[in-house]
Amino acid sequence: MKAIAILTSGGDAPGMNAGIRATVRTALASGLSVYGVKRGYQGLIEDSISPMCSKDVSNILQRGGTILHSARSEEFRTEEGRIKAAANLNKRRIDGLVVFGGDGSFRGANDLQREFGIRVIGVPSTIDNDIWGSDFTIGFDTAVNTALEAIDKVRDTAAAHDRLFIVEVMGRHAGFIALEVGIGAGAEEILIPETVTDIPAICRKVKSRLETGKTSSILVVAEGDEEGNAYEIAQKIEAHSGLKSRVTVLGHVQRGGSPTASDRMLATKLGYAAVQALLDDAAPCMVGVEDGLISRHPLADAWTRKKELDKLLVKLSSGLE
């Protein structure tokens, strides 16, 4: 192993820059040459690959987003696209590739190793926290804190105007953000894809609270809830009970901002662990943190195994009303 490349793929996540920094500096300290790939797999295809030195990652630890940028690449899904990508790595004699992203990004990395023998390591980086094999993914903690701060402010308005507010957070297929944010914000209801949403029951509970003098309520909804997004749920609640609500969609604000201390530490650990995995010839694998310890799992586990919600948190979500 003499040279490695780093790319960030899929949605950006706060802490990616901290991970890039740790990867670059660990690799350089290990005697490896390091290259950065701009715009993910599309950058691999377009040969947007440049050498990186320690100075290139100075003063980025606190920055959100990714200095390497990210992009979707339909071309990489084709054999022709992957041939171009592999050729651009091979001509620089790059032996290993560290990929920051989610399960879709890891599928692409796995294809590169299977088809062209380029050793790949996946670093779980997604605010959704839905990658099996790591207790937390890079960006999740920051996204939760960003959403929590916003909902605290919505709570002030809800209380001032005696209103029902429905706040939508990210989570197309998983309710990790909604669950933690909902509990942390004291939401009256938390609607997530993993549990059944009962609109009539929600209406009864809101009305019951009104009868006891609680004039404002907050419902936190994951965007992928089976009953629909926040606007659709608001319509269903009004149709069933006559209750009117205000909707706030937090959207991409959850992806931005300076990463929390927890995300900086996690990203730094995983960047270091990715280089060590390459040096140990452990590719293809994903590195993670489980029970405070670095773990390695087959890359395919990221999309073949489903990460479960914390059962205690699920219980608390309906038991702290």
Description of the structure:
With 321 residues, this protein is an alpha/beta fold. It folds into 2 domains: 3-139 and 259-304, Rossmann fold; 140-256, Phosphofructokinase domain (Rossmann fold). It contains 11 helices and 11 strands. The chain has helices at residues 16-29, 40-45, 79-90, 103-116, 140-161, 176-185, 199-211, 230-241, 261-279, 301-304, 311-319, and strands at residues 3-8, 33-37, 49-51, 96-101, 119-124, 164-169, 189-191, 217-222, 245-249, 285-290, 293-298. The strands form 2 sheets. It has a 7-stranded mixed β-sheet with strand order 3-2-1-4-5-10-11, with helices on both faces. Strands 7-8-6-9 form a 4-stranded parallel β-sheet, with helices on both faces. The mean pLDDT is 95.
Features:
321 residues; alpha/beta; Rossmann fold; 2 domains; seven-stranded mixed sheet; four-stranded parallel sheet; 11 strands; elongated
In the CATH scheme, the class of the largest domain would be Alpha Beta
Which structural class do you get from the secondary structure elements? alpha/beta
Main sheet: strands, sense, barrel: 7 strands, mixed
Portion of residues in beta strands equals 15-25%
**Strand element count:** 11
Spans where pLDDT lies below 50 across 5 or more residues? none
Query: What is the correct CATH architecture of the largest domain?
Result: 3-Layer(aba) Sandwich
> Radius of gyration from the CA trace?
22 Å
* Strand order, sheet with most strands: 3-2-1-4-5-10-11
Helix and strand run: EHEHEHEHEHEHEHEHEHEEHH
Outline, from the CA principal axes? elongated
Named CATH topology of the largest domain: Rossmann fold
State the end-to-end CA separation: 55 Å
Number of helices: 11
Mean pLDDT: 95
By oligomeric state, this entry counts as single chain
Helix content: 40-55%
Overall structural domain count: 2
